[in-house]
Amino acid sequence: TTKFASALDIPVGFIEKNVKLRGKLHHITEKGLEVEHIPISIPFITSLQSKWQPQGLLLVRLAGVELAAGGMAWLQRELKPKQVIWFQLLGREDLALECLVLVNKGRFLSVCLNEEILRQGLGRAARIEGLHHDSRLYWKLHKRLLRAELRALKKNKGIWREESYSERIRDRMSNNKFVQTLKQFASWLRSS
Could you name the domain of life of the organism this protein comes from (predicted)? Predict the structure, then answer.
């Protein structure tokens, strides 16, 4: 029932057990998502506690994801201010939390943003900070993230998009010095 206003307020036991917390999204920044923690509410106790709850935002980073240029814009389009999200604690580094971020899509469906970004080709799989490299959970999550990245690669999406044969030929033709000289000559003829 305690509201966490800083990453340092979260007990180490919560991080070791990979507890899921609920929060309200406030901002999306270069450093991560700024989220206000929403504690578990018990009707009578919550109304008394709310007067003494600290104010502050948690910095939540997408664990195992290195965002590409379009990733930030995609997050800003997909996530709305004040939207409720779930974040599973995987580690804590200074004042930031490394988490799996889950967003509800409909009544019974939730989407893991970490995987979805990789599936869209808007980032690369990276080392999951905060988890021990030899733990079973680390490899389970890393495998999920790599599968999502592979799906984007196979579907030619995002950063994995390759130019088609005709696009490559057109670029080579337009960059050819002989073609550029012909264009300059033609424009000179038109002007005179």
Answer: Eukaryota
Domain range for 58 is 7-160
pTM: 0.75
Distance CA 175, CA 177 (A): 6
Structure token digits, residue 28: 């999306």
What CATH number is attached to the domain comprising 35?
2.40.50.90
Three-state DSSP class for 52? Answer: coil
Q: Say which DSSP state 159 is in.
A: G
- Judge whether 1 and 41 are in contact, CB under 8 Å: yes
Q: Which of 59, 60, 64 is nearest to 114 (CA)?
A: 64
Q: Can you say whether the dihedral through the CA atoms of 93, 8, 30, 34 is positive or negative?
A: positive
